[in-house]
Fold this sequence. Notes:
The protein contains five helices and no strands. By secondary structure, the chain is an all-alpha fold. Helix 1 packs parallel to helix 4 (44-61) and helix 3 packs parallel to helix 5. The longest helix has 18 residues, at 44-61. The two termini are 25 Å apart.
Amino acid sequence: MDRLSNYLADNNLNVENIENGNNIYSLFQINIQELVKNSDSSEVKNTLNLYSAFLQFTLKCYPSKHEYVNEIMKDAANYCSRN
Length: 83
C-alpha cells in the first residue's frame, strides 16, 4: 500500500489513473477483512499495523472519501473490542 501510494505521488497521478474500473480501496478492504478474520489473537500488533497502513494509504489516495476513513476506523475498533 505504501509503495503504491508513493508511486502515485511521485508520478503526480491519482488513484483513478490506475483503477481501470476496479476500486482499489474495495479490493484492499475485502482482502484485509479476510486476513483479519483468519488471524489469531496473538497477532494484534500486526493487525493494527495493517489497519494503520490501510488508513495511511486511504488518506493519501482518497483524501475526499471520509466514509472510507470511517469504515477503517470502525473495523479497527471492532477488532480491538473483540481482542
